[in-house]
Amino acid sequence: MSHRTLIPVGPYHPLQEEAEFFQLHVEGETVVDMDVRISYNHRGIEKLCESKTFDQVPFVVERVCGICSASHPLAYVQAVETIVGEPVPERALYLRTIVNELERIHSHMLWLGLAGHFIGYNTVFMWAWRYREPVLDLLELITGSRINYANCKVGGVRADADLDSEQLAATVKAMDELQGPMEMLTNAVLDDPVLHARLKGVGVLTKEDARRYGCAGPTSRGSGVPYDVREHDTYAAYDRLDWKTIVRDEGDVFAKTVVRCLEILESIKMIRQAAKEIPGGPIDAEYREIPEGEACGHVEAPRGETFHYVRSIGNNYPYRHKIRAPSYVNVPSFKATCIGQPISDVCITLAAVDPCYSCTERMAAVRDVRSGKKTLNFHDLIHLSQEKTRSLMRDPSTALGALSLSKGFKG
Amino acid sequence: MSESELAGELTSNLGEKVLELKQPSPNNIFVTIRPEDITEVVKVVWDGMQSRFAIVTGMDVPGAIEVLYHFVFDEKHTVVTLKTSVDKPFPEIESITPIIPGAEWIEREVHDLLGVKFRNHPRLERLILADDWPEGVYPLRKEYIPKDPNE
Fold this sequence. Notes:
Chain A is of the alpha+beta class. Chain A is 47% helix and 14% strand. Chain A has 2 domains: 4-41 and 331-406, no CATH class; 45-328, Cytochrome-c3 Hydrogenase, chain B.
C-alpha cells in the first residue's frame, strides 16, 4: 500500500491569505482526500447587526468583505425594500448598477492578476493590475472612496454619490479606454499556450457537483449552470440594459477564467450604457419607517450570489439578519475539485473559486507525518506551482514545450 | 398580493404538508411546515422541483428556534423559504446534509451558534466557534449579551 502523507495547508491560506485550514491527504503526488476548517476570524457581524438600526446596517455589512463592499449592502437594502414594498427612484437604480459593475470589473481583474502570479506567469499579473487601477479611481470619483463605498442606503443611494454630467462623461471615457486593453488581455488569455497547459482540465467541477454544493457565480457558470441573479431575479437597472449571461460548460479552471474575462467585457458595456441613459430625478425614496415583515434579498456579487435574509418586527432594529457570502458555498466544492489532483495543481484550483479573504501574505507549512519535519512552506507551494509551468515549457514532448523551445526558451 | 404559479405548484406538490403559505412580495414565498416533514419536503422542493439550495437561517424566537431553509427558483425569479420551528430547550431536527451535501457547513454553524441538533448529520462538529468556547453557550441566542470590550 502506498504511503499516505497528511499535508496541512494553513490556517493561513496559501493564496488569498486569510485564515483557513486545509488538510490534504496525499499519496505520492496525488491528493486523495481533504479536510477544511474555517472561521478563524469570525467577527459576529450577524449578531452585531441586531444591535444596529436599519440605516446603520449597510455600513456594517459592507465590511463583510472589502471587495464585495457594494454587493452586500445592496442585497441587504433590497431585502428591507421588499419589506417596505415601495419603489426606489430610477436614478438610484442606475447608480447602484454602475457601482456594482465597477466592483465586478476590479474584482475579476484582481483575481486574474493573482491567478497569473500563482502559476508563475507574472505578465498577466502586471497587465491585469495596471488596468484595474483606473477602475478604482473611477469608484473614488463616483462614491468618494476606493473601497467601502458607503453608497447604498435603504430606499436609494446616498446624496454625496449623486453624479453631475462631468462625472458621467468621465465614466464613459474611462470605459472606452478600458475596452481595448481588456479585449487584448482576454484574447491573450484565450490563446495563451501557458494558460492552456496549466488551466485546461485542471480542478474540474461537474455541473452535478456545482448543484450539490449550491455553488454560485463564475464558479458554477464555468460548469454549465446558466444562472445569474442579475438576469434571473433582476434588480437595480439590469433589465433595462443590453447584456448577456456568460456560461461555459467545461468546469475546469480555464472555463472559470474565461467566464470572468468575458464578464468584464459585459460589465464595461453595461456601465457605458447606464452612464449614458441614466434618468434624472431624486436618488432616495426617504422611507419613514420599516414595517413588520420578512424578506430575502440576493445580488450577483463578483464571486457569486450573496444572499441576505432580514426580519423586521416593526421597531428600528432588524430582529434577525442572515448573511451568506458566495464563498461559503463555493469553498466546500474544493472537496469535489481537488481530489485526484497533483499537489502542484491544488494551489490554482483553490484559487479558482476566488475565495474571499483580505490580502496579506502569510505562511503555510507542510510537514511529513512520520518525521514531523517541516518539508514545505507557503513559498514552496507557490514555487511548486510556478516550477510546473517552467518544466512544461522545457519538456519537448508537450505541445507547450515544443512551442517554447522553438522560440528559444531556455528555462 | 396574489399568489403566483409557483405558489400553486408548491401547494399541489406538498399537499397537506403545507401548514401555511404566504407570498408577501412577488419574489418571496414563505411556506410553513412541521419540523418532522423537513427531509421529505426538501426532497420535493430541491430534487423534485429542481431548485437551488441557498442557505439555512436559524433564528431565536421566544420558546423556540426557527429554522428557515432558503431555496432559489432561478427560472421563476423567486426565493422559496421553508419555515419550521423547533422547541427549546432541546431543539432538534433531521439533517438535510445527506440529501444536499452543500448544507453541511450551515447546519454545523446553526448547531454552533443556536444549539440546534441536526439528527443524522455526517459530522456535527464545531465549525464557527473556537475549540475553547464553553459548551452550551450559544452566541446567536437573544439571551447572550456579548462582552463589551471597553469595560
